[in-house]
Amino acid sequence: MKIVFLGPPGAGKGTQAVNISKRYGIAHIATGDMLREHVRKGTELGKIAKGYMESGGLVPDDVIVGMIVQKLAEPECEKGCLFDGFPRNIKQAEALSEKVRIDAAVNIDVADDIIIDRLSGRRVCKDCGAVYHISNLGKDAKTCANCGGELIIRSDDNAETVKNRLKVYHEQTSPLIEYYKKQNVLVNVDGSKSVDEVFEEICSKVDKAIS
Ligand code: ADP
Ligand code: AMP
Fold first, then answer.
1. Collapsing DSSP states into helix, strand and coil, what is residue 157?
2. Which terminal residue of the chain, N or C, has fewer Cβ atoms less than 10 Å from its own Cβ?
3. What residues line ligand 2, using a CB cutoff of 6 Å?
4. Largest CA distance in the chain
5. 142 burial class (0-12, 13-18, 19+ CB within 10 angstroms)?
6. 3-state helix, strand, coil in the chain (%, to 5)
7. What average pLDDT does the segment 123-128 reach?
8. For residues 45 and 131, what is the distance between their CA atoms, to the nearest angstrom?
9. Angle between helical axes of 159-168 and 112-120 (0-180°, round to 10)
10. Which helix (H) or strand (E) holds 131?
11. pLDDT of 140 over the 80 cut
12. Which residue in the list 13, 36, 118, 123 is annotated as catalytic?
């Protein structure tokens, strides 16, 4: 089973992907997380990616596609995978289609004003990557409920970079909605609802799409 998550930055893709990948027993492949790991470790790939990520631009397609092809060969992908944050443009989608057949492309639809609120309040665990929002954290919460790691603000969640990430999303990523619609695998979900409601909507629509 292969699922793609579409949606603007901050739509809740990562939040839902953790639960949805568990529900279907498939690997969660988050290109943003993989890239941040490369940057943290200072790998060659990380050195290439760093500047693009800091400005909110897209890392070059050959770098991303190479990273995905390598990942797909790993045993954890045998049962299927959920792509979170990939593809980000038509070129990447075409490269993916040469490797696997997509069963459902879930578009988590959220308006820009909500996105700004979600990203400005996002906190992530430095160690395990768990995602939180300040509205759900206690006033002095500085540690991760999962692992006790430090909660930080992602360096690209500042107002200037968010503006560019949204622009890049509308110009380059949103055409994928039409791309997957034409392939009859598009599933639209209202991402402005609560985390639990969005989860339920994704499950029921994906179940229907794959039956
Ligand atoms: P993405 O992976 O699409 O960039 P995240 O899953 O990291 O988005 O979510 C962005 C922010 O929005 C986080 O602070 C997260 O806690 C919050 N969030 C995610 N889903 C919802 C939701 N349905 N309602 C309210 N806040 C949400
Ligand atoms: P994300 O964690 O999905 O918000 O991604 C963070 C940043 O990583 C993006 O702003 C891009 O710079 C980069 N990135 C993640 N996924 C991709 C991708 N599929 N193609 C190009 N760049 C990506």
1. coil
2. C
3. 9, 31-32, 35, 52-53, 56-59, 64, 85-86, 88, 92, 156, 165
4. 48
5. exposed
6. 50, 15, 30
7. 94
8. 24
9. 140
10. strand 131-133
11. no
12. 13
Q: How far apart are CA 151 and CA 137, in angstroms?
A: 10
For Cα atoms 125, 189, 10, give the angle at the middle one, nearest 5 degrees.
Answer: 30
What stretches of the chain show up as alpha helix (H) in DSSP? 13-24, 31-41, 44-55, 61-72, 90-97, 112-120, 159-168, 175-182, 195-210
- Comparing CA positions, the residue from 1, 11, 32 lying closest to residue 156 is 32
Distances from the Cα of 176 to the Cα of 19, 97, 103, angstroms? 23, 13, 15
Q: 43 — phi, psi (to 5°)?
A: -70, 170
Q: What percent of the chain has pLDDT over 70?
A: 100
- Contacts of 97 by beta carbon, 8 Å cutoff, 6+ apart: none
Q: Is the CB of 11 under 6 A from ligand 1?
A: yes
Q: How far apart are CA 2 and CA 94, in angstroms?
A: 15
* pLDDT over 90 (residue 211): no
Q: Which two tokens stand for residue 65?
A: 């596609």
DSSP state of 150: B
Question: 189 CB under 6 A from ligand 1?
Answer: no
